[in-house]
Amino acid sequence: MKYLTAALLLFIIMAGSCEEKEPTETVLHPDFSLTLSALSDLIEDQPVPVKNAILARPEYFLELISEALKLPDYTLVLVDKKHGLLPGDKPEHLVSIFDYGLKVSRRDLQVRASVVPDLLAMNEAARQAGLELVHSSAYRSYEYQAEVYQRNVETLGKEQADRESAQPGKSQHQLGSVIDFGSITDAFADTPEGMWLAEHAWEFGFSLSYPDGYEDVTGYRYEPWHFRYISRVGTRLERDFFNGIQQYLLEFMVLYRTSNY
Q1: Could you tell me the CA-to-CA distances from 63 to 15, 49, 190 in Å, in that order?
Q2: Which residues of 64-81 are buried (b: 16+ CB within 10 A; e: fewer)?
Q3: How far, CA to CA in Å, does 119 sit from each of 27, 143, 160, 175?
Q4: Could you list the residue range(s) of the whole structural domain that residue 153 is in?
Q5: Could you say which of 165, 198, 213, 232 is the most buried, measured as most Cβ atoms within 10 Å of its Cβ?
Q6: Are strands 110-112 and 135-137 parallel, antiparallel or unpaired?
Q7: Residue 57: how many CB atoms within 10 A of its CB?
Q8: How many whole angstroms separate alpha carbon 168 and alpha carbon 104?
Q9: Reported confidence tier of residue 261, pLDDT bands at 50, 70, 90
C-alpha cells in the first residue's frame, strides 16, 4: 500500500506538470519555418482585409508563396517611387509583339519572351469574346523613360507628371513585362476591351498596377490601361489574399524576403 500510494502521488504530480505545458505550435508548411503565431507577427502591419484572408487559409497561402518564390525575379519585384531599377537593367530575350500577329499601335513594341504564352492566350480569349486588344506600349528603356517623364513635366508640370509618369528607373515598363492597352486614356475603362481586361486579365497572369482609389498606396493615379504580368500564381495570390491590389502583394514579397523565415 505504501508503494502504491507513492506511485499514485508521482502520477498525479506528472499529470499536473503535463497540464501546465503549453502545446508546441506546428510549422504550417514544409518550405517555411512559420508557425501560425509567427505568420501573424509577420503580417501584423498588413491591411486588415489582407490579414484576415491570410489567417483564414494560412497553409494555402504559404503554398502559393512557395510557388511564387520559384518564379523569375522580375515577376514579383517591387518597382515604384521608392524602389527602382538601374540604367543598365535591361530584360533578356525581348521579342516583338507584332511578330506574333497581335494588334499594335507601333511595330517596335517588345516584351519578355516568357510573357508571350499567356499574352497570346489572353488575346485568344478576348477574340472569342468578340474583342480585339490593341497593344499600345510595352518595354521602355531607362533612357526612353527619361524622355517620357521630361515631356510630361514640360506639358503637365512636375506635380501632375509625378502622379501619372514614372521617373527613369522607377517605371514598371523597364521590366519588359508591362503592356498598356488601347487609347492609354481614362476612357479605356469604359470600352468593351477595358471592361473585359478588368474582369479577365488576372486569369492569364496580368494585373492592373494602378487601380482606382489607391493612389495613396501605389503613388500613381488610376490607369485602367496599364497591366503588368505577374504570373498566374501571382494574380491568384493578389486576388485571394491581397484584396486584388498588386502593390500589397509586391510589398509583402519584399517583407518576406527580408525576414528570417
Answers
A1: 38, 19, 36
A2: bbebbeeeeebbbbbbbe
A3: 37, 26, 31, 16
A4: 36-257
A5: 165
A6: unpaired
A7: 13
A8: 24
A9: confident
**CATH number of the structural domain spanning residue 156:** 3.30.1380.10
H-only helix segments in the chain:
2-20, 36-42, 48-56, 58-68, 116-128, 142-156, 158-164, 192-200, 215-218, 231-241, 246-257
Read off φ and ψ for residue 108, nearest 5 degrees: -95, 10
12 within a domain of the structure (yes/no):
no
Domain membership of residue 28 (yes or no) is no
Q: Could you give the number of structural domains in the chain?
A: 1
Read off the C-alpha cell for 158: 512636375
Asked if 112 and 94 touch (Cβ cutoff 8 Å), the reply is yes
pLDDT in tens, 164-208: 899 999 999 999 999 999 999 999 999 999 999 999 999 999 999
Please give the grid coordinates belonging to residue 157.
Answer: 508640370
Does any domain span residue 13? no
Backbone angles phi, psi at 99, to 5 degrees: -65, -15
- pLDDT tens digit sequence for 5-16: 555 444 444 555
